[in-house]
Amino acid sequence: MSDESVHADLKFQDSDKKEETQMSDKCGGKGSSPASHSQRKTVMILSLLCLLRFIGVVIIGGIFYTSSETEMIKSNQLQSFKEELQRNVSLQQMYNLNNTKEVKNLAAMLQNIATQLCRELYSKDPEHKCKPCPKGSQWYKDTCYSEVSGYATWQQSVMFCSSQNASLLKVKNKDVLEFIRSKMLSNYWLALSPRKDDINYETLSEKMFFSEWFEGSTYDLNTMFCGYIDGVYVYYTECTDLNRIICENPASKVQVESVLNGFADGSL
């Protein structure tokens, strides 16, 4: 081959390389290699994953927000229901309290009516079954008076009445004073504190019973004086002397059933 032919071939190859370089420059740079293509795919995948993650976060956030709103609504509804329930309970309690008061008032009124009716029955029959006192006793106001047969010392009388859940005769107020005076009792021990000195007599009065109750031994009473009633006067004698006994104790409540039975029996 001649020198001119070799020179022509080299020139042609150089021109081909220049054209490839120019085409590469026109397309925006050098031609992409296999490595740069793989990098673009990785970037695209990572971008897609980031986008999916972002979408997932948005969806989860939306779900959380919706759930929070739902729970808030339920919580408010529950609070409203609780407050309404508390109001209803308060109203019911007030209603029950008012009913309880009304029932108590009605019960007290019924008790008073029954007591008044029983007194009417008692005035006609002193041993009527509605009487709230032991058989053989006398009912006055809210007290039962029971006379005991026989005689005893003052201390024996106190012990006997105590065994009956009662006490010796005493005057609590002016009404009882008039009641006791009207009975014209004679030689009955009184629930007066024993005294060391003997006096002639005193007029019976409710003020005599205001002093503290005496508590002493038998030995102490051997030299002391105790009071007893005779008509409207109080006399003192040695506590070891013998006198009669009246015990008194609070009357029970009149039983409404016994009064109703009185009506059924034609007692009223």
Give a description of the structure:
With 268 residues, this protein is an alpha+beta fold. The chain folds into two domains: 93 residues; 115 residues, Mannose-Binding Protein A, subunit A (Mannose-Binding Protein A, Chain A). The protein has six helices and eight strands. The strands form two sheets. Strands 1-2-8-3 form a four-stranded antiparallel sheet, covered by helices on one side. The longest helix has 91 residues. It is elongated. The N and C termini lie far apart (166 Å). About 2% of the residues have low confidence.
Seen as an oligomer or otherwise, the chain set is: single chain
Number of strands: 8
Number of domains: 2
Structural class: alpha+beta
Q: Helical residue percent?
A: 55-70%
Based on the coordinates given, report the CATH architecture of the largest domain: Roll
Would you identify the regions where 5 or more consecutive residues have pLDDT less than 50? 26-31
Briefly note the CATH topology name of the largest domain.
Answer: Mannose-Binding Protein A, Chain A
Radius of gyration: 57 Å
Please give the CATH class of the largest domain: Alpha Beta
What is the number of helices?
6
Distance between the termini: 166 Å
**Mean pLDDT across every amino acid position:** 82
| SSE order | HHEEHEHEEHEEEH
DSSP strand content: 15-25%
* Major sheet attributes: 4 strands, antiparallel
CATH superfamily name of the largest domain? Mannose-Binding Protein A, subunit A
The spatial strand order of the largest sheet comes to 1-2-8-3
Shape from CA axes?
elongated
